[in-house]
Amino acid sequence: MPRPSNAFHTLLLATVLAAPAHAATTHVWPGAAPCDGTLQACIDAASDGDRVEIATDGPITQSIALHSRSLTLTAADGAAPLFSNAGITAYSTGGSADMQVSISRLRFAHGAVSAFYSGTGTATFDLRGLVFDDAPGAASGGLQVIAYTGTVNATVYDNRVSGLPQSLDSGLIRLAAQGGTLNASALYNHVRSTSGSGVSGAGILVDVAGSGSTGTVKLHANEVRGSFYRGGIYLSEGLFSSTPVSYGARVYDNVVVGSGDGNGIGLTPNFGSIDAQLVNNTVTRVEYGVLYSHWDTGTGTTTGLLKNNLVRATTAVYAAVGNSISADYNLFNGPTPNLVSGPHTITADAALVSDALPRLTAASPAIDAADTSTLGLGLLINGLPVTDADGLRRIKGATNKADIGAYEYGDASFLHTTSAATINGHISWIDDPAVNDAPSANLFAVSNANAGVLPSDLVVNDDAFGVWYAGGQWSLFHENTSIAMPANAHYDVFSAGAGGGTFRHVASAETINGPFSQLSDSSVDNLPDRIVLLAQDFNAGPVYNPHPVGVLYFAWGGPGAWLVANLDDADMPAGAGFNVYAQEPSPNAFRVTATAASVVGDSALMLDHPLLNGTPCAQPVVTRVYDATPVTGGFFVYYGANRWIIYARDGMPPGTAFNVLVNPAQVAACADMIFADGFD
Q1: Staple 118 to which of 144, 148, 452, 652, CB 3.0 to 4.6 Å?
Q2: Could you tell me which residues come within 8 angstroms of residue 101 by beta carbon, excluding any fewer than 6 positions away?
Q3: pTM metric for this prediction
Q4: Domain segments of the chain: what residues?
């Protein structure tokens, strides 16, 4: 195909850079009137649909009320607001008006965020990126959503709650219907007890009780640590109410790690019913892994699925008489009184990294042993991400079969450092057991200037490079063969497990349009939100392409497509080969865009991520997103001032974007940690 015309580039620029129109007003506090006084006054002066950004780190000691308001409250770019002994309440006191509230990117010390609805309409609450950090032994209000009447649609996403429940019947995250309909999705939250032993209450508590209460609660890829006597995850019907009600619970890909006692996942109806699907969860270090019981003399039932779960506990599962559970494809380490299990149940040792870090090792019988159809259909029907508890691809491996438990085995990360022993001209040979003798491995890499070591002389090596397999080993090589590989250059390498979301692409006359080559795969076609990584692969296409490469999504007047791009606008050569990785966005696979507040100097983009901040041994992998502005230089990552940084040689103007992947298993292994923000 011919090189695109100027008109094509104009169209592409308009598509890439176009921003949606916004009618709402953004207010910055503290700022100009009406935001030159208190934060509450600023909020009260805003109109429904407006956005209020907090531009100070605080501490903020005034509790905030959003009474029957529809607003967005968030941190301003570059700020990290802290509420100290204060919180935020969004609520209505009746009427038919709808509410729509979004609260995000705020921190709380001894504080809470509560969202209540008592109207006859619909409330939509979006609570994400919130951090609640209380001292050990202190009671935390945490985060709660309650539907008193009407309908509440809630998203509780990627929050971190550290503390203790306030009582036996509370949780650090509480999702409740007390007369209304609650449809809630809690995804990727991290919850931790600050006690070293069992405590009253729950980590995540679902409480549906009282006449008129119903709904569906979806819990996906949450991690709960610490022993809770109610349960790390606790599903209750009819608490303090004899009126039978029913609701649905979809509990997929969650992790509960206790401290030796307490319960993992508890389900307790009173006189009503819970339709519960417990699929692909991991529970370790508790007394009862999964506990099906009743309230007092209640006669209610729990029905549904118990499939693909990995449970290591004193008692793996206890099922009270009267419940109707379809159980199979689970791995149990511990007895299962009163539970009738199917023929695919495994009772062997799980072969985990450890009970505290319950990811699978290569020897685990849980690998490829799940009922993949139940998992896949359940995620699809319930509208849940196809990701595991790490926020990475849920189904992977050569067989495309899922693993039992919350974590999917198959990805690997490591650091490669060049040396005289590995270098041969423009090539450096890799010696790592994760990829040795593995010609079908899917490698992605980024130049890491200092491997997190400070103080250190940076070894900057941002020349265009690719990967190549020969003689049982993979290598990294400069696409410009005249540039020798320097010694002591570091690369973060991510080897993506086989399966959906990884594929090879070879540029051809049918796919090339000037500097671009169009990708075609079910994992990327017409999916603009995908996080796509790219690596030049000489085995896929033995053609040198000595240009910086990236990806972009292009759509104009029809189905869209992802493209491989030479970032300097040089023609894409036919026969050039690439490794491609694609997945749904998650907290650990995301797109970061440079702003005036996030760029230091002209070229350094500061990353802000809980697993990267303060973690010099982390190994983020990065691919640049083409923005219609040609660049001739490459980029690299390095660590400094407790942050990981992306440095672009040609500068980092606002709008420059990168796709970033963080592998939590690698971070946990290198740092011997649970959370990177002090939750250890």
Answers
A1: 148
A2: 66, 69, 70, 71, 72, 73, 90, 115, 123, 124, 125, 126
A3: 0.95
A4: 499-583
